[in-house]
Input
Amino acid sequence: MKHERVIKGLYNVTSPKTQQEHILKYLLKNKSITSWKAIQKFRITRLSAIIFKLKYHFDIECKDTKAGKIHFTTYTLHYDK
Output
């Protein structure tokens, strides 16, 4: 993973300490995340609140998906290094 240690002087994604940094690091590597993945991997239950804060600095697309009776949102980061 070759990206800056500190992005825009605000986020340390090399050794993340905050929930925002953990989610941003994950998005930089995997491009997208769902609430279920955030719960499984980081035990973060309010992903939408974190995404809301990150959207101030980054281009993050929110896509609602319906699979049968299941509804979920996928958050995708569009980031040019």
Remarks:
- Strands lie at 6-7, 11-12, 32-34, 59-67, 70-78.
- The chain is about 35% helix and 30% strand.
